[in-house]
């Protein structure tokens, strides 16, 4: 299940991509399939080991085109182990709401992104997330949990302050909002509640089968109750020095 829409966020074969806070690797895997040179980075060593196994399995199965590469590594989002301008593309999906120093993370992403490069940021959307917080303290008051809820203008403002130029936004995963409301209402750790189990089966069926009816329904509902807010931006090229300045 992808949150980034690659029809709005073009990826070319050979692009060097950083999936920052990759988690289980869903966006990293898609970039690898599209022929990118992918680095999937996360602080969770267990998840990184699983991502590395999947990269190896994909290579053996021939799922990635010739020239594509994939590396999974542990790392700190506030101290990335890469030189400046290392990547054509950076993706950070459902991560920034967890990190106290989100401005520091944005600064690091901008540092390692090449001028002219592209970045995709996804966070939980303000409205659906507020409902989750209102229904359950356990949803967010856990170690490593969500520490803030972004309004769209707030996130875009922070991206601009970091030196990025946003060029597009949208919402995603409307069908997942009711699932999380149910989880919060019945207990975030209570997967045995009948409404939660029933809705989970619906989501799994939708992800596996991709029926037209639910795809259309989600497209219509995304602007209203989409679970995620997605923003795309570029890192501007530095202005060329003037002839007079160059002569000094």
Give a verbal description of the structure.
The chain contains nine helices and seven strands, in the order E-H-E-H-E-E-H-E-H-H-E-H-H-H-E-H. By secondary structure, it is of the alpha/beta class. The radius of gyration is 19 Å and the shape is globular. The termini are far apart. Mean pLDDT is 94; it is low at 243-247.
Strand residue percentage: 15-25%
Whole-Å distance between the termini?
Answer: 54 Å
Rg on CA atoms, Å:
19 Å
Biggest beta-sheet profile? 7 strands, mixed
Count of runs of 4 or more consecutive helical residues: 9
Q: Write down the overall geometry.
A: globular
Order of helices and strands: EHEHEEHEHHEHHHEH
Please bin the fraction of helical residues.
40-55%
Number of strand segments: 7
Runs in which pLDDT lies below 50 for 5 or more consecutive residues are 243-247
Average of per-residue pLDDT values: 94
What structural category characterises the helix and strand content?
Answer: alpha/beta
Strand order of the largest sheet: 3-2-1-4-5-7-6
GO molecular function, one term: methyltransferase activity
Organism: Streptomyces enissocaesilis
Pfam families: Methyltransf_11 (PF08241)
Keywords: Methyltransferase, Transferase
